[in-house]
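Hi R.,

Here's the chain you asked about this morning:
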Amino acid sequence: ADLGGRVRFKVICVAAAVLFVAGSAVAQTDFKPLPGLSNLTIDLDSEDGRFSTFIVHDVCAISALKTQLQMPRIGRHSQYGPAATISLRNGDKHVALQVGGSRNLPLSVKLQTSTSDVVQVYARRMNANEKLDIFIAWTAEGDVQATVGGQTLTINLPGGVRQLHFSGSTGEAMFAPTAIGNTGTATGNCPVG
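And the predicted structure, written out as tokens:
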């Protein structure tokens, strides 16, 4: 059987998908931190089995963040694995970039949404005390691009982003330096009233 045509078609489709994602990626060079939000340290040190959260409630002037994650202490708990999470939220819907979640090292890095069972896994993994570069940008429509270790994945949050959460569980998650800003324009997702 001649499979040449089908194989060539699959290669062309994959190449087109890669070019589409690469062509639509937001350049990190376009990122501009907001005044007073260019050199934050978000240090979430939680007892084993507990979690801590830092929340940015108003993101109408924000469309991106840049940070470096380090986990100086990775705890142990019988039920909860260590995790560091950045989540973009809209009510009960969210998109989450999570490092960890299991008790095995190195920790996996994944991107997921509450509106789908699809979990995208990054090639990069993380051990204790390693530094992981993270860049996340989003549009008013909720299109999210998350870059970790040079690999960019995309996902959608229906209705756009309304809040930004940094969380740490069963260990220490340090997001530093963290810069919060935009990539040229605000998202326009400002509350009415």
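The longest helix spans residues 4-24.

Let me know if you need anything else.
M.
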